[in-house]
Amino acid sequence: MPIGIIGGTGFSQLPGFDLHLEEVTTAFGAVTVLRGSIAQIAYQANIAALKGLGCTHILATNAVGGIRADIEPGHLVVPDQFLDFTKQRPLTLSEGTDEEIPHIDVTNPYCSYLRRLIAEQAGEAGLVVHQDVVYVCTEGPRFETPAEIQMFAQLGGDVVGMTGVPEVVLAREAEICYASVGVVTNYAAGITGETLTTDEVRELMDQLRPDLLALLSEAITRLDANADCLCPFK
Ligand code: HPA
To answer: DSSP 3-state assignment of 155?
Structure first.
């Protein structure tokens, strides 16, 4: 049962799993599976590669800033909706092909089964996890202004990150069940009055990585590929 994980630096190992890096060539270029970087993600190639490898499910991780006061650094979030504020990213896997441009249904963008699975595992591991969270995706690489964060809060955004879209959309287009777990590394800009640094994001990611890897390992072990979910292609 092939399952894809899209993680950042430090995610090339999972406790109890014998993983290796593998180069995969796709119509969108070659990628090394399980390789990722915050600043430049090969969104289309990553999803196309995992699809090509037969993945039916993807668990992704990302760092987020907390917009809501109760979503604190060190907590985890499992988004069920997103707000897309990206500006110049690939939009579809059909780009550059002869295929008709698809209009993908994203009523339930994240797989309901995978979301529940991750949240249950996190709860069992004693981690604080927020469900039904609205993920705001910005273009980056800069952090947001406090005014932008206030706008996102008014629009219903709960956390903000830079990497989750269009990954979730492309996974849906590829008909792969997808969910992501966000690590809250900081309060979003202006929430506490402190300035933001990449170092604090890295530090918290480093701190929480062992818990996150254990959580992913456990979720994969328990994953039932035939479980019911709301994904329209199931
Ligand atoms: N904003 C955007 N992306 C992020 C943040 C943030 O505050 N923290 C971690 N990734």
So the answer is: coil
Averaged confidence pLDDT in the chain: 90
Q: Which residues does ligand 1 sit against, CB inside 6 Å? A: 63-65, 138, 143-144, 160-162, 185-186, 188, 196, 201
Q: Is 16 inside any structural domain?
A: no
Ligand 1 centre distance from Cα of residue 185 (Å): 7
- Structural domain boundaries enclosing 123: 61-220
Number of domain units in the chain: 1
CATH, residue 68: 3.40.50.1580
**101-133 pLDDT, tens per residue?**
889 999 999 999 999 999 999 999 999 999 999
Asked whether 56 and 113 are in contact (CB, 8 A), the reply is no
**Which among 82, 143, 200, 206 is the best mutation to test ligand 1's pocket, defined by most ligand atoms within 8 Å of the CB?**
143
